[in-house]
TrEMBL record:
SUPFAM superfamilies linked to this entry: Actin-like ATPase domain
GO cellular component terms, semicolon-separated: cytosol
Protein name in the entry: tRNA (Adenosine(37)-N6)-threonylcarbamoyltransferase complex dimerization subunit type 1 TsaB
Domain Gcp-like: 32-144
A single GO BP: tRNA threonylcarbamoyladenosine modification
InterPro entries hit by this protein: ATPase_NBD, Gcp-like_dom, T6A_TsaB
Length: 217
């Protein structure tokens, strides 16, 4: 097994290789505006660090969000393209699950990432392997009573400390954790997600209302 994992659903552009036992190489850069520019060089970098070529990959893992439209699509399209070119499967994982797994927390806690618009993408977990609720997008103040007293990880927790009082690491997503979680689930015969985007809300760009339709004469 050699899994190529990537996630661009958050400001972190993160890539890793996992051989089924451990992480072989990884790269992460935090830049919310350069997902498309940074992702392919990161893939090239981790392959070079591992001394491997792309055709050694036996499967692709990608974070499916939730996340903003543009950044999320970069990772999903790239993962699907690699998988198609190599003739290997592509597996999706919830981005929040990767952050939860990286935390190693073995008590109830929350993962919260920055959804912009003064909102967070979030979910509750029973422990770092077990998600207790479906991912949602909400204003932090609207969920304060549901997360009160719980540890929280992710950039959203750091942004809204008045709601997430016990903010812990990690702040940013790691493809290494995502790959390790995928390898664990695949080894146990578990199912992963289809590589489809988890948006949770409509994109910012929309067709204007009452626009004038121009028809040929």
């Amino acid at each position: 097994m050699l899994l190529l994992a990537m996630d661009t659903a958050t400001p972190a552009v993160t890539v890793a290789l996992h051989d089924g036992q451990s992480v072989v190489a990884q790269s992460s850069q935090v830049d919310a505006r350069r997902h498309g520019e940074l992702l392919l060089p990161a893939v090239h970098r981790v392959l070079g660090e591992a001394g491997l070529k792309l055709d050694a990959v036996t499967g692709v893992v990608v974070g499916v969000g939730p996340g903003p439209y543009t950044g999320l699509r970069v990772g999903l399209v790239t993962a699907a393209t690699f998988a198609s070119a190599l003739g290997v499967p592509v597996h999706g994982l919830c981005t929040l699950d990767g952050l939860a797994y990286a935390s190693g927390i073995d008590e109830p806690f929350v993962v919260a990432t920055d959804a912009r618009r003064k909102e967070v993408y979030w979910a509750r977990y029973d422990d770092h392997r077990t998600r207790a609720t479906e991912p949602s997008v909400d204003r932090p103040a609207d969920i304060a009573d549901r997360v009160a007293g719980l540890p929280a990880v992710g950039a959203g927790a750091r942004l809204y400390g008045e709601v997430f009082a016990d903010a812990r690491d990690p702040e940013h997503q790691s493809a290494a954790a995502l790959a390790a979680l995928a390898a664990e689930r695949l080894a146990a015969g578990g199912e992963l997600l289809d590589p489809l985007p988890m948006y949770l809300r409509r994109p910012d760009a929309q067709v204007p209302k009452n626009y004038k339709v121009v028809t040929p004469k």
